[in-house]
Write a structure and sequence with these properties.
Elements (H helix, E strand, L loop, with lengths): L10 E4 L12 E4 L4 E3 L7 H8 L5 E3 L5 H4 L2 H8 L2 E4 L8 E2 L5 E4 L2 E7 L8 E5 L2 E5 L2 E2 L9 E2 L9 H13 L7 E4 L5 E2 L2 H13 L8
Parallel strand pairs: 3-4, 4-5, 5-6, 10-13
Antiparallel strand pairs: 1-2, 2-3, 7-8, 8-9, 9-10, 11-12, 13-14
Helix pairs in contact: 4-5
Cofactor: Zn(2+)
Keywords: Hydrolase, Metal-binding, Zinc
Protein name: Metallo-beta-lactamase
């Protein structure tokens, strides 16, 4: 099974939910235009996609860490989608900037620049759902009900991450009820409280993975 659909008016499936390797979540959103948010690092991603859709119109990258983009070239070769990212990258992606409006699965989303875990990190905010990449996750090995991306890796910065979460909260409609993070389970419910809890933990300097 490829993951649960949390939102009645969007068909969102995590294609890497059952992966046997370490990978980011890769969300297929089916609609007027089939879209993928991140491609992950799971072998067989093209076969999994082809079981779901005949065409793929677009790929949206939250950031270019290997666990999020490892299978990008194979997906591009199979489907020739338009790739959107914060920078052009080796595949000459369409560059997105803060405040841009994009269509993911036929639904409108706003691009929010959210560096801190990675310099090129983006989140995608819609009326009912948010794709947060690694800036905020619902639950992981560090924290439950509101965690944040690592800042102890090259290119990351805790203060910048906190400011990015503040920017995300400032752009989050009250109607958002589904959170699709880069790792771990998706969440349906009070999304704002989950993000605020993650922000508080990051701002207090709580270590992501205490020794």
């Amino acid at each position: 099974m490829t993951g649960a659909v949390l939102q009645a008016d969007m068909d969102v499936r995590n294609l890497t939910a059952d992966a046997a390797v370490f990978t980011a979540n890769a969300y297929l959103i089916q609609g007027e235009r089939n879209s993928l948010v991140d491609v992950g690092a799971m072998p067989g991603m093209v076969d999994t996609l082809q079981e779901q859709v005949a065409t793929l119109d677009s790929v949206f990258l939250t950031h270019r860490h290997d666990d999020h983009v490892d299978r990008l070239e194979t997906v591009r070769a199979a489907f020739d989608p338009t790739v959107y990212a914060a920078d052009s990258g080796p595949e000459a992606a369409t560059v997105l900037a803060d405040g841009d409006q994009v269509s993911i699965g036929g639904e409108a989303f706003e691009v929010v620049e959210t560096p801190g875990h990675a310099p090129d990190h983006l989140a995608f905010v819609g009326d009912m759902a948010v794709f947060t990449g690694d800036i905020v996750v619902y639950s992981d090995e560090a924290f439950e009900d509101g965690s944040f991306g690592r800042t102890d890796i090259p290119g990351a910065d805790r203060e910048t991450l906190v400011k990015s979460i503040d920017r995300l909260l400032g752009r989050l409609p009250a109607t958002v009820k589904s959170l699709y993070p880069g790792h771990g389970p998706a969440f349906a419910g009070d999304v704002r409280t989950v993000i605020e809890r993650a922000r508080g933990r990051a701002a207090r300097g709580e270590p992501k993975y205490p020794e």
